[in-house]
Amino acid sequence: MKTFVQAVICSIAIGPSQFAAAQTPPASTQPSSIQDRPSSSDRRELTNDQKDIHFIGHVELDLGNDAKVFADDVVVYGDDNRAVATGHVLFAQGENRLSAERAEFNTETRLGTFFNAWGIAAVQPPRQQTRPGQIAAPQMSTNQPTTVYFFGDKIDKLGAKKYRITNGGFSTCVQPTPRWDLHADTVILNLDHYTVLKQAVLAVKGVPMLYVPLMYYPTKSENRATGFLLPTYGQSTIRGHQISNAFFWAIDRSQDATILHDWFSKVGQGVGGEYRYNWGGGSDGNVRTYLLNQHEATYGTSTSGTPTTQPGSRSYEISGSANQLLPGNLHARARVDYWSSIETMQTFHTNIYDASRNQRTVGGNVIGGWGTYTLSGTLDHSEYFYSKTQSILNGGWPRVALTRNERPLLGSPLYFSVGTEFAHLLSDSKTTDANGGVVDTNSSLSRYDFNPQLRYPFKKWQWFTVNSTVSWRDTYYSRSRDPVSGKVVDDDVNRRFFSLQSQLVGPVVSRIWNTPDNGYAEKFKHSVEPVLGITRTSAVDNFDRIVRLDGTDGIVGGTTYVNYGLNNRIYAKRPTTAGGLSTAREIASVELSQTYYTNESAAQYDPRYSTTFTGTEPSHYSPFALSVRVLPTDEVNATVRAEFDSKYKSLRTISASGTYSWTGRVQTTVGWSKKAFIEQLAGFNNKNFLDHYVNTSTNMHTRDNRFGGIYAFNFDVLRSSLLNQRMSGFYNAQCCGIAFEYQTYNFGVGSTIPADHRFFVSFTLAGLGNFSPFNGALSGVPR
After folding, report:
1. Is 220 domain-assigned?
2. How far apart are CA 586 and CA 515, in angstroms?
3. Spatial distance between the Cα atoms of 44 and 55, rounded to a whole number of angstroms
4. Nearest CA to 619 among 631, 605, 639?
5. Once rounded to an integer, what is the mean pLDDT over residues 514-540?
6. Which alpha helices (DSSP H) does 315-399 contain, by range?
7. Continuous H helices in 290-329
8. How far is CA 461 from the centre of its chain?
9. Confidence class of residue 135 from pLDDT cuts 50, 70 and 90?
10. CA dihedral sign, ordered 480, 481, 485, 486
11. For residues 767 and 705, what is the distance between their CA atoms, to the nearest angstrom?
12. How confident is the model at residue 192 (pLDDT cuts 50, 70, 90)?
């Protein structure tokens, strides 16, 4: 935005400023007076003791420095160095032109007034710096010269670099009838400082589209300059009309900040800021804060159209990340994505990802490597919300791990590694009781873990490989679970067990077909890969006392796990154009697997299956897991994943997705997922907790990017409800464009989030850029 403003405003002043630039050439080359400068006209009259010169007819005056003035009539008054030019006045310098009906100026100072002036100028915007350590400011112009058409009833030159334009404006649409222009009652140009536009109106094809009472712009020569950004407009059912503006502060070459303000006609206003830095060498970061102050408002909820009054509230959001190189081969990272209200989070943001997000996190880590050793320290605070009052907190505060990476042991074919970890694990669950009160269950504890491992790989044959691993694990917990009450108590517990694992792949069987001259592939290859994994863990006598917070704690002792499966893969070797070598790629794969457990309880804690942790009953067998992936061409791909219950012979879950892309102009993605009903199986026998969704997104545009749009929706099949819908479209003319976006949100039965309808509009101006809302609308619309 800053670069765009600089280019445009400088363009408006290009004629007068270049004329002024010729005022003081070196004494050795500058003529002493108008009489001494090259000039021509039909005739010339001298008066006032030959001090005044009247040039008449086809006047051409050479002002030096490649600057000339043309007019029908020019009078130069020698006593006060004043000149008056009338009739088809034209100032020319290089490729720039400034025309006026009449001009009055001082021949020495070049200060004066130009009446009914208009012109064109070719402006080279400042090139964006790419040196390490410098932030790239929001770039609203290109590095190509921009031709600017500018005009005004009157242009007053007030100083060497200061101008006032009355009832004028500019446009980068240089054609007989400009498709857009920015018009203002008064424009104060203060080059190398700031420019102010009063009562400014943006018009497209003569239709006023945006009015701003005051626009304050930087017109410095640097790449990044401090100043106000263009205001933007949006509309929402919940918050009403929205007008946003922001102020950009170019602190120095390596850091900047933006301060923004939003006004909402229904609910109040919000303020925020963003700070960014880039110090080079991998040290960079950004942080954004926002405070939303909403007063009481009335609108319909997502479950009905009945008007509901929502109380006033004040909420905030902080998001950002940072990377920092430290001495001693250490690297630090930090991230924050924290908000105070889930309702505000899901109603304020304009993209579906943020609107549906129910997790807030704060964390960071420091990691370093020295030879075969790696040390890392992590802080992680993650909280998942299921409603305003129900949430689960987990993470580690802190989590320190020291690892000796896998290396050959004493030159043998054995590989040895060891991992150690100390973690203070967070676990805090908040639920509501029958009376609506909040029940807080804190299961946080400290855990010390030591895990040496020895691996032997057998890879003598390509068609058959075996990886065998033996490991020992010793884990200490500062708290334990009472087997009787199920509550977490302050008694420590220690767990030890051995584990032996072998992973076998093969024998691999394959067949190749030659398919000459079929236009699709030269060869096909079908590969069948049997997979067998066997894991044996020693007994864990105190398993019922272990507080299970993650996968490390869910290992069931005294159990043999047998994982078996069959992988089918199909490859195609395709001819390439221009006589290149043929390339082979996987075009389809089908993988089917299942696990057998000697201990039925292990089926409830196996992280390899997505339906394991749904409260299902113990079983010797896991569900069948099916994964199908098809990539027949570069334009088409599809994936199907499903889990089948082996006991009740029923489908547990299934999901499918596919993408089609055509020449980069059309891209369609379709997704489908379903959680099935199984009457006998816990976790699947309550219809209120099932789901069935269809979602799709289509993005298309013409080859020249003149027309295009996006359509996307998410539909709840089970409840016959359209959860959200997005429609975007754009039109780009020769030198301007317009884009719009319409969104609907309805979070369904039981949701306290109001239904919402939103509309946003964005303008695109040739050579300048596009202007759209700050909070994520119109993302993904090509312009």
Report:
1. yes
2. 16
3. 5
4. 605
5. 83
6. 342-348, 352-356
7. none
8. 47
9. very low
10. positive
11. 16
12. low
Give the 3-state secondary structure of residue 578.
Answer: helix
Answer for the pair 463, 431: CB distance below 8 angstroms, yes or no. Answer: no
Residue 571 lies in a domain: no
3-state DSSP percent of the chain in helix, strand and coil, to 5: 5, 60, 35
| 761 strand-pairing partners | 740
- pTM to 2 decimals? 0.66
- Answer yes or no: are the C-beta atoms of 662 and 681 closer than 8 Å: no
Per-residue pLDDT of 221-237, as tens digits, reads 555 667 777 677 777 77
Task: Give me the CATH number covering residue 44.
Answer: 2.60.450.10
Our CA dihedral for 575, 578, 580, 584, rounded to 10 degrees, sits at: -30
> What is the number of residues in the chain?
783
Residue of 415, 506, 499 whose CA lies nearest to 466:
506
171-188 residues labelled b (16+ CB within 10 A) or e (exposed): bbbbeeebbbbbbbeebb
Tokens of 311: 């109380």
- pLDDT score, position 161: 66
CA distance 5 to 229: 9
Packed helices 2-12 and 14-21: angle between N→C axes, nearest 10 degrees: 70
pLDDT value at 751 more than 50: yes
The answer as to whether 124 is a domain residue is yes
Angle at 313 between CA 320 and CA 750, to 5 degrees: 90
DSSP letters, 373-400, are EEEEEEEEEEEEESSSS-EEEEEEEEEE
Judged by DSSP in three states, 290 sits in strand
Structure tokens given for 276: 């960014």
Q: Which residue range is the domain that position 81 belongs to?
A: 2-228
- Please tell me whether residue 344 adopts helix, strand or coil conformation: helix
Q: What is the pLDDT of residue 217?
A: 62
Coil, helix or strand at residue 266:
coil
The number of helices, as runs of H, and strands, as runs of E, in the chain is: 4, 46
* Residues 6 or more apart in contact with residue 409 via CB below 8 angstroms: 415, 416, 454
Average pLDDT over residues 632-648: 91
Q: Which tokens go with 242?
A: 């929205």
What's the total number of domains in the chain?
Answer: 1
CA 73/CA 78 separation, integer angstroms: 16
The winner for highest mean pLDDT among 280-284, 735-739, 770-774 is 280-284
For residue 30, the number of C-alpha atoms closer than 13 Å in the C-beta half-sphere is 11
Q: Is residue 78 part of a domain?
A: yes
The four Cα atoms 34, 40, 44, 50 give a dihedral, to 10 degrees, of: 20
The half-sphere exposure of 524 on its side-chain side, counting CA atoms within 13 A, is 12
Count Cβ atoms within 10 A of the Cβ of residue 129 and give its class: 0-12 exposed, 13-18 middle, 19 or more buried.
middle
Beta-strand ranges (E) seen in 127-206 are: 146-159, 162-171, 180-190, 194-204
- Kindly state the DSSP code that residue 129 receives in the 8-state scheme: P
Token output for 101: 């009906």
